[in-house]
Structure formats: C-alpha cells, structure tokens
Amino acid sequence: MATSSSGDRVPRDRPPHTDPLTLEVVELIGTVVARYHEEYEEAAAGHALTGAQARVLGLLSLEPMPMRRIAQKLKCEPSNITGIVDRLEARGLVERRPDAADRRVKLAAPTAQGAEVARSLRESLDFAREPLAELSREERLVLRGLLRRMAGGATT
C-alpha cells in the first residue's frame, strides 16, 4: 500500500486513471467505437435507414419485443422507439403483433423483408471482421472475456 498526498492508503497495483497506458487504451476504444458507428451509419444509409432505425431493426431481428424493452436496451425514451417502429412499419420492415404470453402487450417484430435487411446490414459491417480475422481464436476468446469484464458481465 502506498499513501496518497491526502494521507489515504491506496493499493500499489491499481494504476491511476491518468497513466499513459490507460489513456491509450481509452483512446483506442474510442477509435473502435467511432469506426463502428461510422460504418454502421453508412450501412444503414445504404438501405435508406437512419442509424437508429437500423439499430432497432437489428435488435428485433434477434427476437420480437415490446417497445418499452427496445427502449431499455437502446437506452432511450419509449416515445422515440414508437416513432422509429412506426416508420419501419410504414416501409414494411416491421410489424406489430400481440404477445402470445400477454395479449395486452404488442410486440414489434421484423417482417420477412425486415429480417433480410437486418441480415444484409450485419453482413455489410466489414470493419469488425477484418481486424478480428487477424487474431487467432485464442486471442478472440481473450478479447471477448476482457470486453465482457469491462462491460460488467460474466467472463465465460
């Protein structure tokens, strides 16, 4: 244990948040995120979608869900999701249907055309595949574990 200038004891094995390595890692994460968003926006535009519409469609392609849950997953207001789903529905990419478990709840779900657009969007995102292709399976497993830890999830 070391003692800080205020007299508090701090563990030696925890680097300060401003050490050069931490700053470089944060900068690299920012670069990857920015590159992902840029390519995602371009892919969405290629399908005449906004980035938000593409994210909702991609999420729904995994499983139908109610608007409130979409909003929770995307960390936005449910009223925003309603407008996005309205526009996707008008294009024939999404439909609203009753939830079999609770008929009072409406689920947003991709249509066949919407599922195809979502698949096409995923396949057009080369930026992640290209750098990851250079990593061995073991390196990708380590990276996945580290990212899960950083995100607060399980490491397995």
In short:
The chain is an alpha+beta fold. It has 7 helices and 4 strands, in the order E-E-H-H-H-H-E-E-H-H-H. The strands form 2 sheets. A two-stranded antiparallel ribbon has the order 1-2. The chain has a two-stranded antiparallel sheet with strand order 3-4.
Task: Summarize the structure in words.
With 156 residues, this protein is of the alpha+beta class. 60% of the residues lie in helices and 12% in strands. The chain has one domain (35-147): Winged helix-like DNA-binding domain superfamily/Winged helix DNA-binding domain (Arc Repressor Mutant, subunit A), CATH 1.10.10. The chain has a two-stranded antiparallel sheet with strand order 1-2. Strands 3-4 form a two-stranded antiparallel ribbon.
**Class derived from helix and strand content:** alpha+beta
Largest sheet: 2 strands, antiparallel
How many individual helices?
7
Shape: globular
pLDDT < 50 runs, ≥5 residues: none
Keywords:
alpha+beta; 4 strands; two-stranded antiparallel ribbon; 156 residues; two-stranded antiparallel sheet; globular; Arc Repressor Mutant, subunit A
Q: Helix and strand layout, with pairings?
A:
Elements: E1 2-3, E2 9-10, H1 20-45, H2 51-62, H3 67-74, H4 78-90, E3 94-99, E4 102-110, H5 112-124, H6 126-133, H7 137-150
Protein name: MarR family transcriptional regulator
Domain HTH marR-type: 22-152
Organism: Streptomyces venezuelae
